[in-house]
Amino acid sequence: VQLQASGGGLVQAGGSLRLSCAASGNIFSINDMGWYRQVPGKERELVAAITSVGMTNYADSVKGRFTISRDNAKNTVFLQMNSLKPEDTAVYYCHAVGLYQRASQYYNYDGWGQGTQVTVSS
After folding, report:
1. Least C-beta-crowded within 10 Å: which of 29, 31, 103, 116?
2. How far is CA 58 from the centre of its chain?
3. How far are the Cα atoms of 40, 42, 51, 75, 99 from residue 20, in angstroms, in the given order?
4. pLDDT at 27 exceeding the cut of 90
5. Which of 71, 75, 47 is nearest to 61 (CA)?
């Protein structure tokens, strides 16, 4: 299973960006999907997560500004980021937990995308 993230970039404070992350491979099912972010010298932190039935969880710092959603048919998770602030600047990573199939067997999957840079200028 591979996670391919896209949509990062440079934006001015107050602007918006939309991140996407698509899972591909021998996926049987994906349960939780989410977005984390990391800045140099700090631990990776949860930004938002969504279950397979659409229950969501957000970091307090992004509530009311970011919206996570997913397309289960396409195994894709999105993060709509509005009213961006300079402190949102980070590398954003998508994360997924589920099952994949190989040779008629099912295995747990817990993986990360490659990261996409989001830079918000003041």
Report:
1. 103
2. 12
3. 23, 24, 16, 11, 21
4. no
5. 47
β-strands 2-6, 27-38 pairing: unpaired
Tokens of residue 84, six digits: 């961006």
Residue whose token pair is 């992350």: 21
Amino acid identity of residue 91, one-letter, is V
Would you call 64 helix, strand, or coil by DSSP? coil
Residue of 32, 13, 12 lying closest to 21 (CA atoms): 32
Q: How far apart are CA 119 and CA 84, in angstroms?
A: 9
Backbone angles phi, psi at 15, to 5 degrees: -85, -175
Burial class of residue 87 in the structure, from the number of CB atoms within 10 Å of its CB (0-12 exposed, 13-18 middle, 19+ buried): exposed
pLDDT in tens, 29-69: 999 999 999 999 999 999 999 999 999 999 999 999 999 99
Phi first, then psi: what are they for 86, rounded to 5°?
A: -55, -30
Q: Evaluate the CA torsion angle 62, 63, 64, 66 in order and state its sign.
A: positive
Whether the per-residue pLDDT at 17 is higher than 90: the answer is: yes
